[in-house]
Amino acid sequence: MFDTKKGKYSEEENERIITALNEELAKGRPEREVIRELANELNRGYAGIIAHVRKLRAERPERFTAVSAGNTKPRLNSWSEEEEEILVQTVNQFAKEGKPISAAIEALKEKLSRTPGAIYQRIYTLRNKYPDKFTHLPKQRPRRRKQPSWAVQKPVIRKLDAPKGEEERWNPAQGHKEVSATAEADLAEKSPEIEMNGEEAMLLKAFEERYGRLNLQAKQQMLRLMRRYGCTRVSIALFTLTENKDFPMMVVDFLEKHLTDKDKRV
């Protein structure tokens, strides 16, 4: 990855920024798209361009003749009260109709010209700040108390005559034996029901609608991620996967593996 230019902006760069914003915003293009193109053209960081545009607008307001489409004043990363009201109404309406939050985010992406990750993050920011406004979202998951290492890593006691997968381990706190992790996995396979709260179920549903149905092992892996990093962080990562420059390569690698495995079966 190349290093972006740093330091003071030249007058030529200032003129290019002002001209591009006036011309492209007059055509109705979203301001963030124009700034992203300017960042590539001038070899400047995206956040740095945003900050410099804000400074130029404050110093030379008469030079800026156009604003973002649908706005009465320029907007960069900040959320207006009108946008937040649209977001709350849309999320509540979709939830009331039994539709997943991913569908609401797709609709909001078109209405607000925001990325899915930014919308999802704003939903949970507003839910924490104004919980009464959201009438249909699930309750926040209570934090789990971290167990001490001695309670998690229990020694395995093997029986010579025990079948494979039925090893037992001793729990010093309870004074009795428990089935091993292998046996627990076997039980989970026989019992497809997995305990989860509403927020976890909603995020799993959003994943399956976007990428396909998960098997039991993948669902358990998703739940481990949500309980380790939290649903909000996992959801933001999920909805911004396509923005990662490595994501297309992973898809191509998977496609190649899929086709190779298919050839072997023929």
Structural features:
266 residues; Myb-like DNA-binding domain-containing protein; single chain; three-stranded antiparallel β-sheet; 4% strand; Arc Repressor Mutant, subunit A; mainly alpha; globular; 12 helices; 4 domains
- CATH-scheme architecture of the largest domain: Orthogonal Bundle
Share in helix: 55-70%
Order of helices and strands: HHHHHHHEEEHHHHH
CATH class of the largest domain: Mainly Alpha
Question: What is the averaged pLDDT score?
Answer: 75
Rg over CA atoms = 26 Å
Which sequence of strands runs across the widest sheet? 1-2-3
Count the helices. How many? 12
Q: In total, how many domains does the architecture comprise? A: 4
Class of secondary structure makeup? mainly alpha
What is the CATH T-level topology of the largest domain?
Arc Repressor Mutant, subunit A
Name the shape in a single word. globular
Strand content: under 5%
Distance between the termini: 41 Å
Task: Describe, in plain words, how this protein is organized in 3D.
With 266 residues, the chain is mainly α. The chain has four domains: 78 residues, Arc Repressor Mutant, subunit A, CATH 1.10.10; 53 residues; 37 residues, no CATH class; 63 residues, no CATH class. Helix content is 58%, strand content 4%. The protein has twelve helices and three strands. It has a three-stranded antiparallel β-sheet. Helix 4 packs across helix 6 and helix 10 crosses helix 11. 13% of the residues are buried.
Q: In brief, what are we looking at here?
A:
This is Myb-like DNA-binding domain-containing protein. The protein has 266 residues and is mainly alpha-helical.
